[in-house]
Structure prediction request, 588 residues.
Amino acid sequence: MDTTFNPPAELEQHRSRALKAGAVGLVLCVAGAALDRDHFFRSWLTAYMVVLGIALGSTALMMIQHLSGGAWGVFRRVFEASSRTLPLLAVLFIPVVLGVGSLYPWAHADLVSADKVLSHRQAYLNLPFWLGRAMIYFAGWVTLSMVINRLSKAQDDGDISVNMRLQKVSGAGLVFYALTVTFAGIDWIMALNPHWYSTLFGFLMMGGQGLAALAFTIIASSLLVGKEPMNHLLKPSHFHDLGKLMFAFVMLWAYFNFSQFLLTYAANLVEEVPYMLARLHGGWQVLALFLVVFHFAVPWLVLLNRDLKRTPSKLVVVAVWLLVMRYLDFYMMIAPEFSSTGQNLAFAGGEHGAAASHFFFHWLDLAAPLGIGGIWLWMFFTQLAQRPLFAVGDPYLRESLESTGGH
Amino acid sequence: MSHESTPTLYGLMAEFDTAEGLIHATEQARLAGYRAMDAYSPLPIEELSEALDLPKTRLPKAVFIGGLVGCLGGFLLETWASTIAYPMNIGGRPLFSWPQFIPVTFETTVLGAALTCFFGMWGSNKLPQPYHPVFNVPEFARASTDRFFLCIEAADPRFDREATARFLQDLHPLGVSEVAP
Prediction:
């Protein structure tokens, strides 16, 4: 058995293709930013949250893997490569910072002084504190990813003393992850609406990130499974594990979303209900129904099939589809807060609900995912090519590779 | 050869001390044409169901249908209770407030699927079954701790007392026993 596990040469092709696509997308985004500032910032934020979800979800799954073990550890290098893209994502966050004035009602002094709720929230939602929190999130995420990746490298080089430290860092890291992702979701998405709040929002973020990370890991691994060194080593049972996890996260997504909807429906409070009403009118209800059917019902039914989960070429279709759904889900969270001119409804209508949003889709909503996704994939493939495709120092690697399923 | 004095048999059972030995023996027995046989192991062995070429279980389909029945039953129960049996105005909501029915619908779906799975599993394994001929072999007591057994049943058309015993002996078992019915 070849134990160097060097990545296949084809990665170089994927890398350059991703870079080209990303460059085209970024050029379009720059043009869009000049032509239509408001739409640019909104589209950028939407696409950014999807891609950030892949990287952060992978970081979390990597830490869970260190704590739980299991044969799905054979995919650890894919999670690790995704987690090493976090410095790039910190850079890609800059447009969101530049767009604070376009995106968030709390950034407008006149709106804040005219609105009791916003004035009350000013202690938390103000520019210095908001920026400071964003810096803490990114500093923490990048540090966490760097520390774990460095320990993993030491493990490759044969240092077995890091095994315990990897677990300890992962345990503490998961707590940090859960808190920061919750607050980031509040800061970057929930605050688009001046009044709305949901205590489930952090869970929605984390569940979505886990799903996006699993879907992406299936896609990346299916690119590798036909080539050396993975073609002899990855078995149907390994993909079966990822498929089962993805299945679980599809249900988790539905569970969290429905819980949020039901609690709002049952409580019927004036701060909460407009968020749901906006998404059940003006054409958005079609997207809502689409998400129920194609983010949950259809993938759920399809993923029930055992053989599909064990066939990478079929499973990858579901994974790609679910990533598209992740994008539409963030679109559903963000876009209905804006009018079709790209302006936040809170700026136009004063009291929320006075102005209703109607369904729209802007060309920048295709350009932004292309730009961010392409440049991010380029970074991902760059990182993936730097290390052996299996964690060669992992004491459970042999056992994981030999596993044929069952527990 | 005379068979008058020999009692009827359930089958012949070979004992192995490793899972690999059992898997190998099962594969060989299949290649030799035996079909009516079963393997016994203290731990689940994924390869065994392939080696035995067991038919695909119909249980998943039954569980799916059980879940579906539970789902519809729960939803209809809630609908009936809230709109027909006890039509009460709660917070001004419509009587048919279907989002509020979903949690119960979910629970009854799980209940329907779980009950079908539980009883379907027992039924398809023909359990409970307090007596089975393999218990007549004293060594079989270790089947739940550290020994692996392959039993070729007399019901198999290729079964022959001497030939099958020789065949099993050639697989290097710890021993071959006759299983009384």
